[in-house]
């Protein structure tokens, strides 16, 4: 397992990964890039240029978790989503791309800006995998009791590893 992240210079961090970990990260990030592809926009050219979307809540539970409704009222939530989701998708894609572009085996220095992108992307990866696995607060107890022969084991261990990386990065940043 990697040593994760440690404090670097000028607010940056040092990342250390093995080649297999970089491969796994890039695979997960590629999945994320496909998942948060640009949302649908209206047929109006001005609205399309401004990134104004349709405003419909996603039916996919993962996308609903990544892009939750801002309001309880469906009409208000749709209006808010219409004006914000395209920008949110762009941000999530940019963060994921930053991880994809900077993930290296061995020791690598990340700028403060890159580290923040990693932090947001790791959070999105955890939310995605956690939603797919229906993770609860007892996840660590479940993993501890789970047999390595359990077909869910690799996914749960990956979720746990992402949690470790996120924690390691937060500690290195603060």
Please name the defining characteristics of this protein:
single chain; 174 residues; mainly alpha; 3-stranded antiparallel beta sheet; 3 strands; globular
Question: What is the strand and helix layout of this fold?
Answer:
Elements: E1 4-7, E2 13-17, H1 19-35, H2 45-50, H3 61-66, H4 74-102, E3 106-110, H5 112-133, H6 139-145, H7 153-173
Antiparallel strand pairs: 1-2, 2-3
Helix pairs in contact: 1-4, 4-5, 5-7
Description:
There is one protein chain. With 174 residues, the protein is mainly alpha-helical. It has helices at 19-35, 45-50, 61-66, 74-102, 112-133, 139-145, 153-173, and strands spanning 4-7, 13-17, 106-110. It has a three-stranded antiparallel β-sheet.
Main sheet: strands, sense, barrel? 3 strands, antiparallel
What radius of gyration results from the CA coordinates?
18 Å
Average pLDDT figure: 89
Count every helix, treating DSSP H or I runs of 4 or more residues as helices.
7
At a glance:
Helices cover 62% and strands 8% of the residues. It has 174 residues and is mainly alpha-helical.
């Amino acid at each position: 397992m990697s040593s994760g992240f440690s404090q670097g210079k000028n607010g940056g961090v040092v990342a250390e990964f093995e080649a297999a970990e970089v491969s796994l990260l890039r695979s997960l990030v590629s999945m994320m890039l496909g998942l948060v592809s640009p949302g649908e926009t209206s047929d109006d050219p001005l609205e399309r240029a401004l990134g104004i979307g349709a405003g419909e809540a996603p039916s996919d539970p993962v996308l609903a978790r990544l892009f939750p409704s801002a309001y309880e009222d469906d009409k208000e939530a749709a209006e808010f989503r219409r004006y914000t989701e395209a920008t949110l998708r762009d941000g999530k894609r940019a963060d994921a791309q930053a991880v994809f572009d900077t993930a290296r085996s061995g020791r690598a220095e990340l700028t403060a800006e890159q580290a923040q992108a990693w932090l947001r992307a790791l959070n999105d990866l955890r939310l995605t995998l956690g939603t797919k696995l229906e993770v609860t607060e007892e996840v660590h107890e479940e993993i501890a009791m789970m047999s390595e022969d359990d077909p869910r084991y690799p996914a749960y261990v990956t979720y746990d590893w992402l949690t470790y990386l996120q924690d390691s990065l937060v500690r290195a940043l603060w």
